[in-house]
Each structure stands twice: as structure tokens, then as C-alpha cells.
Design brief:
about 110 residues; mainly alpha; two-stranded antiparallel ribbon
Length: about 110
């Protein structure tokens, strides 16, 4: 019973910490779409999105690029973000990336089995 109580308290604390997460480099989807008009700015935005995905994968110990669904290519991810931003120009790009990550990522299988 004590373990259940400790687990509930830890989960509650984790949810609170996640809710307070702030990112300093969060652009809107409108900015993402505008970046498409400037090659250098677009490359910067793309690098941010790809770095964000890799950071989330590493931090959560989750596979994103290669899962049971198959391998995802960079241009497929960028195309998905393009479409998300066209449909949601007032949202932050990070929100779309988070949704994509959560829809695909899966835990890394341990090699210690």
C-alpha cells in the first residue's frame, strides 16, 4: 500500500513539473510557414524541429525515427509539420511536433533480455 501511495505522489509531482515546462525558442506555425519563403530561415526552423525530436527521443528513451511502423524520413516529418502548421497557423510549432512525437514514439527495447 505504501508503494502505491508513493507512486501516486510521484506521478502527481511529475505532472506538475511537466505543466510548468517553458521553452525559450517557440515559434508559431505562422512563423514556420513564413520561414518557407527564406532558405536560411527555413533551415534554422527545420534544424530546431529535428533537434527537438531527437532531444525528446533521447530524454524519454523512446524511438521515433525507426519503430514497428517502419522508418520515417526527415522530409516526411517536415511535410507533416508543414501540413499541421497550414491547418493550425496560430499554434506553436512545438505543439505539432509534440503531437507527432506522441503518436509515433515507442520505448527503446532493452538489450539486457
Amino acid at each position: 500500500m505504501r508503494y502505491v501511495l508513493v507512486l501516486v505522489l510521484l506521478l502527481g509531482f511529475t505532472a506538475t513539473v511537466q505543466a510548468q515546462l517553458k521553452l525559450g525558442a517557440t515559434g508559431t506555425c505562422a512563423m514556420w510557414l513564413e520561414a518557407g519563403k527564406n532558405k536560411v530561415f527555413r533551415q534554422i526552423e527545420e534544424a530546431f524541429v529535428l533537434g527537438l525530436i531527437d532531444g525528446m527521443s533521447s530524454g524519454a528513451n523512446m524511438n521515433f525515427w525507426v519503430t514497428r511502423e517502419g522508418q520515417l524520413k526527415i522530409n516526411q516529418v517536415l511535410y507533416w509539420v508543414d501540413n499541421y502548421c497550414k491547418d493550425n497557423p496560430l499554434e506553436h510549432t512545438v505543439t505539432g511536433v509534440w503531437k507527432l512525437f506522441n503518436s509515433r514514439a515507442e520505448p527503446v527495447e532493452s538489450s539486457d533480455q
